């Protein structure tokens, strides 16, 4: 995950923790629903932990968990029982906690008495709010630095705090608990529950800033009514494709992906009409450069507006000055942005941090993809200047030594040591395990620059600027020649992961070179050797391609970037394999990932460990993996899209499809799929595809459409319509 710094990472969230997500808010708790401040638990809103303790006790006992089921990404039902004090095993008191997260939480507690006699209960909830910054919680370095005020008032409790680093903002929460005895730190109920009867209550917790509640009114809906979260989800479901698949397991995984993607949508505070993709829960519920770009582009067949909103929001925050602390530079695309006023603990010490070498070329490369999805010409034209500034950044700042490659070296000792997607401190190493020294030129970054050049060439052709199109086509061709000359290791049969500060080949065998397949940077004669190496036993675990081969010095199957399996990484590799014609390899890789999802209720996590499949019956979880996580959630969508051969070029009036779905996937039926301002129906059976509802200006082509970059590279740009 972008933003992760492996030497300051928090410990595991705890076995069986439950994470709920809604926009920029999330909640992490134990399986019984309790939240404890000594763990990285809590209710978080805009990067602040607004609720650090929320623990339920009945007759002095914490609940014994029985089940925790996520109903929707933002709602869960916890079921537990009250331990008996008389030594008997079975308890007659069963407790249900139905929790929904939004700007705060609303929770309905129901206690059922399965005894033949009435039960006198003392039900208490302990409440604390430490208003800790998300980074403090993540890195287990919380330091309380404020005066706290607790104000019980009838059926509510207000907790308030003020601190200078919040720019004198007064943060708080208001807890409402009808029918409770409200004390400064505890809410208490004393019901008598009749035999075979039940008792219920509803509580809510809402964050405030300067006395004003954040977000829409947060209350428990009346019976039969939907909450605002339900309405938002219903609106999302209405606008995205509906699918049926012969393979019900894959169908479930895709539907889970849709749900998670919907929950990870956040609004740009400056433009509420724009929706962007947050990177992932629990620690990255905010806009990222690399992560949000990849996830939104992978989700193009589901909702193209997410990619447009992400591009527009990143463009608004594009670098304009040189700032060594935040690593901002003119034209640079940010690495991450934080939403809260207490941003001093973030990387760079401000609300935005720019220490990413790949987000900037990716912005242009993926903008080229988005520009073909039929958005209004004036919308694309408004973004073009923001695509040209990254190209100037590549020339003036990215390639500091003028060797034709983009490299990175952090500008201050608080920044990320490594600034590609493998951004842990030890993520880039030689075959013997020794660390590469900066400035470092990553292989996949050169592929993104190559894609940026070709994407800009395509867009120039779209507006009839033949000279500019030729200029960027030539830049791409020169880069491809240099790359294949300097990164290829003929004695190894694969590409170096990077060039180090002394321009030596960093010779570890890593998954990064698969991204070069996706962009078409690899020479045709070398592609078979790359595909063979990626699918070798050293690289392919049986569940996916490892980040680092098992015969490398730094290999560790339980590391973050040196032997683990990342679904999004594999989705990019799969698309690259298909691009070069390696269909069977791509099918094998896709099937392995989709089978891995079966072991986590259809949800692929951020990453899992790289142990061989024949050693463990299920993928081994990575302890601190984000879940849901944006580019993992969009991985199944990207896998199926690639196997469909799905290529849209609305601007030029064409939709291409050449399906190679494995027989085990069964037939695929998709309705309500967005295309050219309308909705289409897609049916695939074997290698046959049919389309219904295609707008008149669009033509369906059954077959392979060469990638736009390939057409540009060959000088075969079709005329604009």
Class computed from helices, strands and strand pairing: alpha+beta
CATH topology descriptor of the largest domain: Glycosyltransferase
Radius of gyration: 26 Å
Strand content: 25-35%
Low-pLDDT windows of residues? 1-15, 341-349
* Count of helical regions: 16
The biggest sheet, with number of strands, parallel, antiparallel or mixed sense and barrel status, is:
9 strands, antiparallel
Shape type: globular
What is the CATH first-level class name of the largest domain? Mainly Alpha
- The CATH architecture of the largest domain comes to Alpha/alpha barrel
Topology overview:
Layout: E1 18-22, E2 25-29, E3 42-45, E4 48-51, E5 53-58, E6 61-62, E7 64-72, E8 75-81, E9 93-101, E10 105-113, E11 119-120, E12 123-128, E13 132-133, H1 134-138, E14 147-153, E15 156-162, E16 170-177, E17 181-182, E18 186-189, E19 192-193, E20 198-209, E21 212-213, H2 228-239, E22 242-245, H3 248-263, E23 265-268, E24 271-280, E25 284-287, H4 290-298, H5 304-316, E26 336-337, E27 352-353, H6 359-370, H7 377-398, E28 441-442, H8 443-462, H9 466-486, E29 488-489, E30 494-495, E31 498-499, E32 505-506, H10 513-519, H11 527-534, H12 567-579, H13 583-597, H14 630-633, H15 635-644, E33 647-649, E34 654-657, E35 668-675, E36 678-685, E37 688-692, E38 699-702, H16 708-713
Parallel strand pairs: 34-38
Antiparallel strand pairs: 1-2, 2-3, 3-4, 4-13, 5-6, 5-12, 7-8, 8-9, 9-10, 10-20, 11-19, 12-18, 14-15, 15-16, 16-20, 17-18, 20-21, 22-35, 23-24, 24-25, 26-27, 28-31, 29-30, 31-32, 33-34, 35-36, 36-37
């Amino acid at each position: 995950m972008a933003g992760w710094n492996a030497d300051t990472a928090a410990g595991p969230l705890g076995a069986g923790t439950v994470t709920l997500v809604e926009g920029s808010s999330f909640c992490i708790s134990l399986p019984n629903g309790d939240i404890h401040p000594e763990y990285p638990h809590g209710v978080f809103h805009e990067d602040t932990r607004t609720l650090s303790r929320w623990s339920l006790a009945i007759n002095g006992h914490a609940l014994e968990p029985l089940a925790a089921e996520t109903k929707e990404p933002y709602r869960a039902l916890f079921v537990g029982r009250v331990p008996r004090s008389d030594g008997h095993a079975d308890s007659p008191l069963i407790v249900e906690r139905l929790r929904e997260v939004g700007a705060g939480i609303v929770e309905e507690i129901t206690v059922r008495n399965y005894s033949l006699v009435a039960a006198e209960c003392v039900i208490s909830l302990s409440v604390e709010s430490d208003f800790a910054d998300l980074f403090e919680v993540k890195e287990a370095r919380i330091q309380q630095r404020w005066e706290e005020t607790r104000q019980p008032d009838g059926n509510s409790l207000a907790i308030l705090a003020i601190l200078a680093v919040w720019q004198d903002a007064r943060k708080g929460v208001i807890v409402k608990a009808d029918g409770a005895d409200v004390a400064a730190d505890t809410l208490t109920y004393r019901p008598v529950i009749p035999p075979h009867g039940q008792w219920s209550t509803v509580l809510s917790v809402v964050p405030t800033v300067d006395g004003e509640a954040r977000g829409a009114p947060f209350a428990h809906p009346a019976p039969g009514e939907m909450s605002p979260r339900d309405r938002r989800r219903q609106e999302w479901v209405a606008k995205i494709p509906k699918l049926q698949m012969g393979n019900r397991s894959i169908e479930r995984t895709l539907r889970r992906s849709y749900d998670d993607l919907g929950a990870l949508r956040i609004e740009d505070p400056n433009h509420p009409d724009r929706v962007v993709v947050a990177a992932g829960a629990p620690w990255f519920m905010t806009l990222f450069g690399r992560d949000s770009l990849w996830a939104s582009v992978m989700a193009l067949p589901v909702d193209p507006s997410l990619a447009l909103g992400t591009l527009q929001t990143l463009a608004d925050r594009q670098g304009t000055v040189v700032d060594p602390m935040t690593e901002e530079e003119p034209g640079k695309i940010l690495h991450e942005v934080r939403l809260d006023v207490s941003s001093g603990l973030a990387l760079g010490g401000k609300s935005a941090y720019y220490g990413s070498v790949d987000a900037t070329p990716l912005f242009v490369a993926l903008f080229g993809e988005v520009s073909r999805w039929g958005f209004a010409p004036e919308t694309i034209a408004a973004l073009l200047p923001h695509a040209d500034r990254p190209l100037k950044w590549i020339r003036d700042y990215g390639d500091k030594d003028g060797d034709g490659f983009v490299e990175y070296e952090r500008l201050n000792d608080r920044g990320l040591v490594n600034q590609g997607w493998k951004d842990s401190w030890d993520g880039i190493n030689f075959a013997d395990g020794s660390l590469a020294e900066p400035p470092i030129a990553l292989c996949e970054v050169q592929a993104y620059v190559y894609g940026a050049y070709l994407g800009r060439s395509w867009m120039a052709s779209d507006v009839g600027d033949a000279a500019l199109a030729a200029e960027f086509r030539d830049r791409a061709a020169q880069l491809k020649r240099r790359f294949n000359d300097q990164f290829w290791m003929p004695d190894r049969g694969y590409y170096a992961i990077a060039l180090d500060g002394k321009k030596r080949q960093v010779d570890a065998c890593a998954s990064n070179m698969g991204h070069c397949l996706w962009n078409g940077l690899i020479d045709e004669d070398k592609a078979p050797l790359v595909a063979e190496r990626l699918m070798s036993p050293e690289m392919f675990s049986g569940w996916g391609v490892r980040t680092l081969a098992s015969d490398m010095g730094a290999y560790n199957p339980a590391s973050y970037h040196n032997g683990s399996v990342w679904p999004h990484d594999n989705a990019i590799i799969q698309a690259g394999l298909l691009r070069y014609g390696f269909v069977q390899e791509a099918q094998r890789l896709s099937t392995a990932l989709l089978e891995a999802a079966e072991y986590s209720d259809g949800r692929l996590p951020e990453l899992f460990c790289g142990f061989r499949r024949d050693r463990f019956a299920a993928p081994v979880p990575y302890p601190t993996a984000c879940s849901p996580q944006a580019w993992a959630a969009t991985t199944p969508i990207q896998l199926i899209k690639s196997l469909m051969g799905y290529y849209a070029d609305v601007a030029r009036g064409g939709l291409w499809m050449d399906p190679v779905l494995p027989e085990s996937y069964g037939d695929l039926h998709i309705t309500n799929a967005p295309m050219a301002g309308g909705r289409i129906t897609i049916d695939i059976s074997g290698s046959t595809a049919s389309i219904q509802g295609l707008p008149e200006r669009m033509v369906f082509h059954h077959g392979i459409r060469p990638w736009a970059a390939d057409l540009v590279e060959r000088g075969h740009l079709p005329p604009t319509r």
